[in-house]
UniProtKB/TrEMBL annotation:
It comes from the Bacteria. One of its GO terms (biological process) is methylation. It comes from Amycolatopsis mediterranei (strain S699). GO terms for molecular function: S-adenosylmethionine-dependent methyltransferase activity. This is Methyltransferase type 11. Pfam families: Methyltransf_11. Residues 50-143 form the Methyltransferase type domain. InterPro entries: Methyltransf_11, SAM-dependent_MTases_sf, Thiol_S-MT. The keyword Methyltransferase applies. Keywords: Methyltransferase, Transferase. The keyword Methyltransferase applies. Gene3D superfamilies: Vaccinia Virus protein VP39.
Amino acid sequence: MAGGDSVGARDGLWERFGAALYEPFVRRGERLGLADRRGELLRRARGQVVEIGAGTGLNVAHYPATAEVVLTEPVPAMYRRLEKRVAGRAGMRLVQAPADALPMAEASVDTVVSTLVLCTVPDVDRVLAELARVLRPGGRLLFCEHVRAEDPKLARRQTRLAGPWAAFAQGCRCDRDTVALLKQRFHIEEMSTARWRGMPSVVHPLIIGTATA
């Protein structure tokens, strides 16, 4: 939901509108708990860190001061807002790059961060393969994603509204079974579930955790 997956992403009116709307749209959800969840998760970031789909930079304030962070974002309108948020912060570098083609060497990264991104990329397996490629042995993926509901009634609603939601949220899929996709490429070390309060019900179910390739 935070960013796209193509370095050649459009920079049209709709994309600029989406970038401008993003933070006001999620503000209530951040205030009602998601900001705290970001902080809890990102305290675990160690060493060389790469964040995919960094969007407007809502994670920036939560990184440990000792972390060396590369923030990647392919959508120009999001990237411009990210630049403003990162200005003057030590230890942070920006790269306009897609999540499925990161400009990092194989086995060169200690921590990869994905928050509300795997819902939006068209080819999740390709992205996860790229994350596994850049992670060092023993490196970790930190994730916070909204996912397909376990509750059958809500899952049916997600399926029914997946198309309209994707059109509104610039490709975000509210019905994606991200847990199953993660398990195809990663070993999930720990994972908790939560509710994204203050947001539409189709994106309420959250997973937060860590995984190794």
